[in-house]
Here is the input.
Amino acid sequence: MSSTPRTNYVKMLATLGLECTCCDGAGGECRSTWDGSCSKLDCRPWKQPRHV
Here is the structure.
C-alpha cells in the first residue's frame, strides 16, 4: 500500500489531535475520506464539536 504526501499530511495532523474532513462537496458536504485534491480542507481539534 502506497501513501501520497496528502495522506501522510492528514495522518500527521491526526497525531497532533486534529481531525480533517474535505468539505468541497455539493452544498458544502463534508467527507472524512477523499481521493485527489480538496479545495476546502477543514481540520479541527478532535474534541471540538462540528457545527452544521
Notes: Strands lie at 18-22, 41-45. Helices lie at 5-15. The chain has one domain: 5-45.
